[in-house]
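Quick one: structure for this chain?
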Amino acid sequence: MKHLLAALAACLSLLAPAQSAHSAEPVKTLRYAFRIAETGFDPPRLSDIYSRSITAHIFETLYAFDPLARPTRLMPLIAAGEPEISADFKTFTIKVKPGIYFADDPAFKGKKREVTAADFVYSIKRFADPATNAQAWTSYEDQDITGLGEARNKALKTKQPFSYDTEIAGVRALDRYTLQIKTNGPRPRLIESIFAGNDLYGAVAREVVEFYGDKIMEHPVGTGPFMLKEWRRSSQMVFERNPDYRERHYEAQPAPGDKEAEAIYAKFKGRRIPMVDRVVIDVIVENQPRWLAFLNNEHDFIERVPEEFITQAAPGGKLAPNLAKRGMHAVFTLAPDMTLTCFNLEDPVIGGMTPDKIALRRAISLAFDVRKEIKSARRGQGVPAQAPIVPNTSGYDPAFKSEMSDYDPARAKALLDMYGYVDKDGDGWRDLPDGSPLILTRNTEPNSLSRAIDELWEKALRNVGIRLRVKIQQWPENLKAAQAGNFQMWPVGSTAASSDGQEAMQRLYGPASGTQNLPRFKDARFDAMYDRMQAMPDGPERDALFREAKRIAVTYMPYKVHAHRILTDIEQPWMSGFRRPLFWQDFWQFVDIDPGRSRSHP
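Got it. Here's what it folds into:
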């Protein structure tokens, strides 16, 4: 019912008057749909990619990724230029560009509010404040910023409110427009790690947080090109161009020979951005109505064509002739992501680090056929993953091969037999070594792809004598359960936010347990290796540690890593400029809509 209501809302919105706030020209409205509901819009509290793809257009941080460059490159956004970095990679000084303002909001009491270095100091401190339960705190903790972790630990220990007014040596505003970050050890990748993602690390104004209090998740206010105007939870979100957004123009540096990027740049070079006035996002969980909404011209593009429709949309990796005839354009991307099954290592059945528990998880992994999942459920839209490191990042080696992708039910059965997971009561199902029933529960979502993969899991485990129960909940409920450690198995996706592969290794880093590290994996050797890698420059020595880290991940199996997805996005003929972001979430400002050609616009 929910997706039908969302589709109806999308249709009704087409009847609204289309008049630009800036002129008599038709409003350029970008419409598309999410497959999973958002959770909110306060950056420190977010971990899901859907909410973060919203905040990326509302907030801005100091640097941004070039929208077209591959390999990627950073360029100043709010920063006035390149950072000044000390030779030992321990001191970073960044100038904030004057004359950039937050969007108008009642919290500012009618005054224009300029963003300053102090806003970045405050925003960083919010991630350290235990009260925010910041899901990306580990990203800051990894940088070992002088005094920041100590301030957080003091608040945790004393149970007193975090002191935002106490100066922290490593996070200072030297003057109105100068931010200085100091770290205890070398951090060669600090700028990209915490100052190049609008979705999480953009500037937040203290007045706004204090004005809205507990309602801050509903009131995002940033310096970005768009503002939230309407929000019907898990149904529809409406955004409008920030009327006070500064004059900013489309700039990029396509790689020589990258014809797709060069064509986009030739069309948009120097254009003022954003080019669209309004963005409407419907939440349509079921794939069929989402696909039909696109085909019926209710949406301007479809982000990630649903797997069951990929043979209709792009057979053989090419746009279908009937869609090409309609003037549509397809974008194919091997995403810097991975799909995983998380195992809760604190669960009494599937968790633990003893040989019998490790053997159980490895047997479960061997029992499941990833290639069948890719071929049947994902319709060929992926490649088997060998470790929890994703394409287009450091540490990823396409030649690396591990047990992670192996399908070997005979070996799975042998492992189970060896460690006492046998049928003790004669009912045809394996039991735990102590004789109690071996029953696993897989948390999952109510959509067709999840159902298809659930069926593959049930058949695979039944084949080796293990019973599986499926617990169906909406994604936000499953996330809450995972963060609380109240699950056994849960499938998730993980997308890189930078080109550094170590970011993905947070998912196994002990101090990140309960946030990025959902399995709560703890291994002293892995943690020591992780800490050492933070201070190392890229090179052969760091690559060797990546290989060792991948072997640890495969050995203990806190995750079953399934696939790196191939994502197919399709634009309607009246939309142009879309190129799937790799390590960032914002793209609305880089696309255009021609309302004169659109059959979905008045």
